Amino acid sequence: MKTEEYPISEIIKRARLGRKAIYPLIQKYGRFSIHGSSIYSLNKRFHDLDDILLIPPQFTPLRLKKAMDLVFREPVFFDVDLKTNIGGFDVNLPLIQASMGSQDDWNKVAIFSAKACAEYGIICGIGENVSTTWGYDKRKNPKQPSFLERALSYLENLTEKGGLIIQQNEEEAFDELWNKIYSDKRFDDFIQEGKIAFEIKAGQGAKPGLGGEKIVSREEALKLKSKYYIYPDPEKVNAEYYERHSSPDIFTEEILEYRIKKLRNDYPRVKIWVKTGPYRDIDKVIEISYKAGAHCVVIDGKEGGTGMSPTVALQELGLPTIVCLAAIRRAKMNGMNISLVISGRLYNGSHLVKSLALGADGIAMGRPFLIASYAYPFSATILKRELYKNRFLGYLIDNFFHPNEKSIIFVKNFIESIKVEAQMIISSLGKYNINDLNSEDVVALNRDLARMLKIKYIYDMFD
Q1: How far apart are CA 388 and CA 399, in angstroms?
Q2: Among 158, 163, 194, 443, which one is least packed by beta carbons within 10 Å?
Q3: Which has the closest alpha carbon to 323: 53, 43, 97, 52?
Q4: Quick check: helix, strand or coil at residue 213?
Q5: How does strand 123-126 pair with strand 95-100?
Q6: SS3 of 57, please?
Q7: Residue 28: which pLDDT band, with cuts at 50, 70 and 90?
Q8: Other CB atoms closer than 10 Å to residue 401's CB: what's the count?
Q9: How much is the pLDDT for 115?
């Protein structure tokens, strides 16, 4: 083995930093939590949706049918209808802002992203730990929105389309978050209109099998100690930072089935969603969710997730997004009539179209909404070059990058770009409704990938 191939720098980093080396970024100032750790640090180890091509046909009978419907003009890409239903919610676009939780830099802009999603008529999620970290209806930190602010920022700006999905973890169950929401008069009209779903968090892509991880100040650690595992103990040790760990839920097949059925019984006026991760038994998770009556399952591939997920989890745990998408395809081919959503390193219109063609009902994105929310002047340089890691620059950025209403425009622009790309691609396939997309529209660049997805391999197409 050549000297440069041996991980000398990594070993030194671990020796100097200890526990700090486990996480992709720990910095007193400017914890943007955008990049996380690279899953391609050495080389691309597995296939993704970029290994799938979309293949348009010459003969387009559905374009002719659309032209006959329009009568007075030829169809163009903006005639493509992207409206659909996902998990009981009618939407203008099968794109979901994933259920992101309490991370500082996301929470600051979450209310603006929520407004953008509401105005666009797409589904928006609120992840775990928000109410316990930042308060249910009153702010624990004057600079951070409470759970209620995030929820109402979406619901009060909602058009006819869309829906809000809300997670609850073990710590929040102790505070009876879902019970609070279900009995809170401020939510009553929205529940009655069918605009809310409760999402069981059974896993996530960035750290399947692990709970929530967050770096907090001593002040926050002292406030959260009664509900979370905090390391080191803030009452005994004065440290630079503290790790806040939340417990992963315990599941068996029987527990998942029971929880879905119980939630349907206890909260009959809301939809029941399941968020799961890139597990080896994902087929069974989908089957149980379908039979127990869940409205939707969101499957997060290993590429999903940001922030404080341990580097080793991002790099080594779980199935790639494309393999999770194959599970969705199998479920649909087996007749499971349940909404299935895929997420994990998806960020453009082609990813949306390819996922739909392979059987998904929609896609969810987390990190792109976070980055879009911070699309201020010079932000590309600041984020791409990770200037916020510099102590001085990080301090300036943290204090002068104040989220504001411009983030709504940024997020709406991002959503619009996904919509237009998807419409262009679908029209190039000679189709004008997303329900017409299927596996004939895609081809694999790898034979093993083609076999797994049961689609054509590009170099065998004409055999």
Answers
A1: 11
A2: 194
A3: 52
A4: strand
A5: parallel
A6: coil
A7: very low
A8: 19
A9: 97
Alpha-carbon distance of 453 to 322, in angstroms, equals: 9
Phi, psi of 341 (to 5 degrees): -120, 140
Rounded to whole angstroms, how far apart are CA atoms 330 and 323?
11
> What span, in angstroms and rounded, lies between the C-alpha atoms of 312 and 14?
13
φ, ψ (nearest 5 deg) of residue 202: -100, -5
Q: What domains can be seen in the chain, in order of their start residue?
A: 39-211+246-460 (3.20.20.70)
Return the half-sphere exposure (C-beta side, CA atoms, 13 A cut-off) of residue 205: 32
Nearest to 52 by CA among 462, 463, 439, 460: 439
Grade residue 18 by pLDDT with cuts at 50, 70 and 90: low
Query: Looking at the DSSP assignment, which residues form a beta bridge with residue 244?
Result: 214, 230
- For 451, the enclosing helix (H) or strand (E) is helix 447-453
The helices-and-strands tally (H runs, E runs) of the chain is 19, 16
Q: 338, 460, 452, 455: which is closest to 54 by C-alpha? A: 455
Q: Which two tokens stand for residue 354?
A: 């390819």
In sign, the C-alpha dihedral spanning 333, 339, 342, 346 is positive
The answer to whether 179 and 266 have CB atoms below 8 angstroms apart is no
What length does the chain have?
Answer: 463
Mean pLDDT of 154-180: 91
**Beta-strand pair 296-300/271-276:** parallel
Q: Which of 112-116, 382-386, 434-438 has the lowest mean pLDDT?
A: 382-386
Model confidence over 284-333: pLDDT tens digits?
Answer: 999 999 999 999 999 999 887 655 677 777 778 889 999 999 999 999 99
Are 53 and 406 a contacting pair, CB within 8 Å?
no
Type of residue found at 261? K
Query: pTM (2 decimals)?
Result: 0.88
Residue 416 pLDDT: 92
Helices 104-120 + 147-155 axis angle, to 10:
20
**Rounded distance, CA 125 to CA 168, Å?**
12
Give me the pLDDT at residue 382, please: 65
pLDDT reading at 121 higher than 80: yes
Q: List the structure tokens of 278.
A: 């890139």
The answer to whether the beta carbons of residues 136 and 129 sit under 8 Å apart is no
The candidate with the shortest Cα–Cα distance to 354, out of 435, 296, 453, 441, is 441
- What average pLDDT does this structure show over 395-407? 73
Mean pLDDT of 387-416: 76
pLDDT at 149 over 80: yes
Q: How confident is the model at residue 354 (pLDDT cuts 50, 70, 90)?
A: very high
